[in-house]
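dumping this here so i dont lose it
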């Protein structure tokens, strides 16, 4: 019933989020943070790599929230997340914070871990739909991730928030991506892991959504469809 229903919707364009939807952000980020910690920080503190990583994510998540709201600029986010992390573990060194940030930004997108079933699912969808990416990540980082992890051949268009001039969930970034892809709202659907930025953002312009919820997060937000594994998209489409 679901498959027949989606076919009747005349969907032609599928827009994907990148981080935590296709590219395994947690695994790749944590691997990089541990490498950077051992290389540049471990000799200056008794804190473990695991504790350093936990503290970093605490500050990074808060600063990203501010960045999405337009409260801080990209350059501030990048430097301050490591500055605050180092301060909390007793290292007051602004130069080191900048060096760590540069190393992290260089190394992290080189990681190639993808979420389970990503490539098989995209291979199935590629010949049937036009596939695109809408991501809030930094342009210089996101394109490296896509290229290095083998995702590039699957996607016709990649739109970053920097290019669009707006952060998801702002409707402008979705409208920008639709225009770039030559797609209409009725022909399109958004697949993403974040209820606020991906699902509510798409819904705000009337675009259908698939909430990718691998942790089975409990919520009361209405979504068009919800999946726990990417391979469920094969059944939907």
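and the seq i came up w/
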């Amino acid at each position: 019933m679901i498959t027949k229903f989606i076919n009747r919707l005349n969907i032609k364009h599928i827009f994907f989020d990148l981080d935590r939807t296709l590219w395994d952000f947690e695994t790749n980020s944590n691997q990089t943070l541990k490498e950077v910690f051992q290389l540049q920080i471990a000799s200056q503190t008794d804190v473990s790599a695991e504790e350093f990583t936990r503290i970093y994510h605490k500050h990074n998540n808060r600063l990203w929230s501010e960045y999405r709201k337009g409260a801080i600029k990209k350059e501030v986010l990048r430097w301050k997340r490591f500055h605050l992390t180092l301060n909390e573990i007793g290292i007051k060194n602004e130069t080191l914070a900048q060096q760590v940030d540069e190393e992290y930004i260089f190394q992290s997108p080189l990681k190639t871990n993808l979420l389970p079933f990503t490539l098989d699912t995209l291979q199935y969808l590629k010949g049937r739909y036009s596939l695109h990416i809408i991501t809030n990540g930094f342009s210089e980082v996101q394109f490296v991730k896509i290229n290095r992890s083998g995702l590039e051949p699957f996607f016709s268009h990649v739109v970053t928030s920097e290019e669009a001039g707006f952060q998801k969930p702002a409707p402008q970034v979705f409208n920008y991506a639709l225009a770039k892809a030559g797609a209409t709202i009725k022909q399109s659907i958004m697949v993403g892991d974040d209820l606020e930025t991906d699902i509510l953002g798409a819904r705000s312009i009337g675009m259908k959504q698939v909430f990718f919820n691998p942790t089975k997060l409990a919520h009361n937000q209405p979504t068009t469809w919800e999946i726990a594994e990417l391979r469920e998209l094969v059944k939907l489409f």
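The domain at 2-23+114-236 is CATH 3.40.50.1000 (Rossmann fold).
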